[in-house]
Design goal:
Length: 114
């Protein structure tokens, strides 16, 4: 599970215009022992590192690992991450399309005065 949020300009701690893309990883003890949890975190960090340039700046991501992640391979994590990035792009485009549609609407028709 991944939660994604976009930070507004000026929310950077140092006030910079270009905000870094950040990743938070949560792996609970239900997933496995410390070795398993650390392995999952290493996998997710590596996939994020490889795909970081494809993500927009100022993006905050929180990755919450589920129990199935204990048996995941690098290829599976990478495939899931790529699917999430593609899904996010679709949602952003759909939101932009809806916003454009709202702006293009003409003013409501007024009834003629009698």
């Amino acid at each position: 599970m991944v939660f994604v949020s976009r930070r507004a300009p000026g929310q950077s701690p140092d006030g910079a215009d270009e905000l870094p893309t950040r990743l938070g990883i949560t792996v609970t003890r239900k997933v496995g022992n410390a070795v398993t949890r650390n392995r999952i975190k290493r996998l997710v960090r590596e996939v994020f590192r490889v795909h970081r340039l494809r993500l927009p700046q100022g993006l905050d991501m929180v990755w919450v690992a589920k129990q199935q992640a204990a048996a995941a391979t690098y290829a599976e994590v990478a495939r899931d991450f790529e699917a999430l990035v593609a899904r996010r792009a679709q949602l952003v485009e759909a939101t932009r399309t809806q916003a454009r549609g709202r702006r293009r609407r003409s003013e409501p028709k007024q009834k003629p005065k009698r």
